[in-house]
TrEMBL record:
Residues 360-403 are annotated as: Disordered. Residues 380-395 have a biased composition (Acidic residues). Belongs to the YccS/YhfK family. It comes from Streptomyces azureus. This is Integral membrane protein. Pfam families: FUSC_2. It comes from the Bacteria. InterPro entries: Memb_transporter_dom. One of its GO terms (cellular component) is plasma membrane.
Length: 739
């Protein structure tokens, strides 16, 4: 029961990153409040200390503890200078406003210096805002500075002593999350096998969601590998095994879907949200083969869950040996071809789980191995020995106003100026709420559409948060510590849901502010309504600045990212096919992960186009379709890359020089589409023609899965079809097929 609960938590919060952030922030605030209460501080200092502790904790995002300590130490003098200037300039209207705009520009511009520059800029801005919120004056500076210093010390205690988060520890928890999410995906695939015609769409959507969540965790592990593993070879080994498991799980889902339908399922079906399931009949009849398939899926799920528990024994070894045996043709049960393919998929998934366990947990007991299991171990050992490190190529960086940080700094400075002017027209005392909203909508956004969506979400969360704030303020009245207790709960909720929903985060922030106003005895319905007005004004100013000052239109942003995805796709495909054709080894998994990251960036940038409130319905469907096609292409490219890396060590894989020529059309088509995206007047056309298998003169009598080359051909064909499919929604003309 405890293990099941642990797996569920690990899957819902990979690496426990959200839980850690919430506990650390709430703990720092609680410690600050406790010390200040013992010292007899008044409520203004309590509020200031709580806000400073929150800022000191969430602003620092570096991975290594040493770097975090340096940034926290530098952040304290920045905070003290910022609150001092806020108190001095508070009464000087125009000078204070000008300084606030300059501070905002510097804070955003500081992002170009990495995590430390971002953290120090955020601390400077937020503490200046804190001074305005509590109405800091020069006479109150000594106790206020003391409260801020105490807040930073409390943050250090929680960060380094009570709730530490080392890169190694985070990576360990992410690995648990990957296993838990892999088990959840297998459970969803089992439901897909058992679903009736009316339940098929729901079951397929669960498989899609599980596949996406597994991929998300794999990307999170990739981001932590460099800092969380002892050496580069170990990092590459884990990277390889994670990629193998992800590919095997995704392929198993496709094979199970095919086993339920009358024809081979399209890979796009697994990547396009809302796409209908292929026509299926009733659930598989309870004959011996399908009953065995269902049993082995359950066994695979158990194998995944127990892989990280340290469990071993004869029963577990028996399950592992049986599943790995399906990699040999003679061990397949009598069944239709599509069902046999599913058994093969289970065997490949079991092999990936074995490799994952060896890579993460070290050597295993081999006394109960069957010949099939021993052969799988030998293959894995040979692959591991061939893995070594490589160097990342340096990327060109933009300069001047083309640099994103510089452009964003100019935009947010202009938007903040508008927000100050408009905010003071609404309220001479609380105009800074408009500035805060303008600042926040620019965080982690890169186009006008993203800023518009973020502003809309913040306004929506604020409106509902005002209602909650009114209710909570009425309930707590003047009970100070009850209010602070609710503030801590709301702050924890804010940090826990922040990566999941910006609207919910804004809701909890606004509800918390209603309680803080109550503590400062400035609560009223008018104040909370003013917060909505200032939020709407700040969001509008941010959108206006983004649209008029050095604008980056959503179309331009998505086209740039689309071009990057296509370039990465061409690189991975060409390198993988080149290696499969007998060419030199390349850093294929690194290239594949670069493709995944580029695709993740594109998916985030298309949110304004796919948001439910967008009025352009046809455009929304097109954007979703293009992203789904690209995810399909990425899946096939990842599989080709993983297969190519097996070439030097796997006895059943041989280089085939014909592949380079056969795949040349696919690479040219990707480059043609990329050129068309970059220049709509480009004249090149997408080529069509005979299938890749026919170009290689593939023997129709060759058994399916009889050679690894056949699998490579199928992935190349599906990739070629998906690339040609991209031409229509992107408006790329098709060339007439050659006679």
């Amino acid at each position: 029961m405890r293990a099941r609960l642990r797996d569920r938590i690990a899957a819902s919060d990979p690496g426990l990153l959200r839980l850690t952030a919430g506990l650390r922030t709430v703990g720092a605030i609680a410690l600050t409040l406790a010390v200040l209460a013992l010292l007899g501080a008044d409520v203004h200092l309590l509020v200031a200390g709580a806000m400073a502790a929150m800022v000191a904790t969430f602003a620092i995002r570096e991975k290594q503890l040493g770097a975090q300590a340096v940034t926290l130490a530098l952040g304290l003098p920045v905070a003290l200078v910022s609150v001092t200037l806020g108190a001095v300039l508070n009464a000087r209207l125009y000078v204070g406003d000008v300084f606030f705009v300059v501070l905002i520009f510097c804070a955003v511009y500081g992002r170009r210096f990495g995590d430390r520059g971002t953290a120090l800029g955020l601390i400077g801005f937020q503490v200046y805002f804190l001074s305005l919120f509590v109405g800091a004056e020069v006479s109150s500076l000594p106790p206020l500075c003391g409260a801020i210093a105490l807040a930073f010390c409390s943050s250090a205690v929680l960060r380094f002593a009570i709730v530490p988060a080392t890169p190694t520890g985070v990576l360990l928890r992410l690995r648990l999350a990957f296993r838990a999410r892999l088990a959840q995906l297998v459970s969803a695939q089992l439901d897909l096998l058992d679903a009736g015609p009316d339940e098929m769409d729901k079951a397929l959507e669960a498989v899609r969601e599980g596949t996406a969540r597994l991929h998300e965790t794999a990307m999170m592990i990739q981001a932590q590998l460099e800092d969380g593993t002892p050496d580069e070879s170990a990092a590459r080994l884990v990277q390889r095994r994670i990629a193998d498991a992800e590919i095997a799980a995704e392929r198993l889902g496709l094979l199970l879907l095919t086993s339920r339908s009358a024809e081979r399922a399209d890979t796009l079906t697994l990547h396009l949200p809302g796409a209908p399931a292929p026509s299926v009949g009733q659930p598989a009849a309870p004959d011996e083969a399908t009953a065995t398939l269902r049993r082995d899926l359950q066994a695979l799920r158990a194998l995944v869950l127990r892989a990280g528990s340290g469990e071993s024994g004869t029963a577990l070894a028996h399950v592992r040996n049986r599943l790995l045996g399906y990699r040999d043709e003679e061990n397949l049960p009598p069944a239709p071809a599509a069902v046999q393919d599913a058994f093969r998929g289970i065997g490949e998934a079991a092999r990936s789980v074995l490799g994952l366990r060896i890579a993460l947990d070290g050597p295993q007991d081999e006394s109960d191995d069957t010949p099939a299991t021993a052969r799988s171990r030998e293959e894995l050992d040979a692959e591991d020995a061939a893995i070594d490190g490589g160097e990342e190529p340096a990327e060109e960086k933009e300069t001047g106003l083309r640099r994103p940080t510089t452009r964003a700094a100019v935009q947010v400075a202009v938007g903040s100026t508008l927000a100050i002017v408009g905010g003071e027209l609404l309220s001479t005392q609380r105009w800074y709420w408009a500035v805060l909203t303008c600042w926040i909508v620019f965080l982690n956004t890169a186009s006008t559409g993203e800023i518009l969506v973020k502003g809309y979400r913040r306004l929506l969360g604020t409106v509902f948060g005002v209602v909650a704030g009114i209710i909570l303020a009425g309930l707590v009245g003047q009970h100070t510590w009850t209010a602070f207790g609710l503030v801590l709960l709301l702050i924890f909720a804010m940090f826990y849901v922040a990566p999941l929903s910006y609207t919910l985060m804004s809701f909890f922030v606004t509800a918390m502010l209603g309680l803080l106003y109550t503590l400062l005895h400035t609560y009223s319905l008018d104040v909370l309504l003013l917060r909505v007005e200032e939020t709407a004004l700040g969001a509008a100013c941010g959108v206006v600045a983004a649209a008029l000052v050095l604008p980056v239109r959503t179309d331009r942003r998505t086209n740039e990212l689309l071009g990057t995805v296509l370039d990465r796709l061409a690189e991975v495909t060409e390198a993988a096919v080149g290696q499969l054709s007998g060419g030199p080894a390349d850093e294929l998994l690194d290239k594949a992960r670069d493709l995944d990251q580029a695709l993740a960036d594109l998916r985030a940038a298309t949110q304004p186009l796919t948001h439910p409130v967008t009025p352009l319905r046809a455009r929304r469907h097109t954007a979703r379709y293009v992203v789904a096609l690209l995810e399909t292409c990425a899946y096939h490219a990842r599989t080709l890359a993983a297969t190519a890396e097996l070439l030097p060590t796997h006895p059943s894989i041989a280089a085939d020089p014909r592949l380079r020529g056969a795949a040349g059309r696919t690479v040219r088509n990707i480059e043609t589409i990329a050129a068309r995206v970059a220049d709509e007047h480009a004249a090149a056309r997408v080529e069509t023609g005979p299938s890749i298998a026919s170009l290689l003169g593939s023997d129709a009598g060759t058994p399916r899965y009889g050679r690894i080359t056949d699998r490579v051909l199928r992935h190349l064909e599906r990739l070629d079809e998906a690339v040609v499919g991209l031409a229509r929604p992107l408006g790329v003309p098709m060339a007439e097929p050659l006679a």
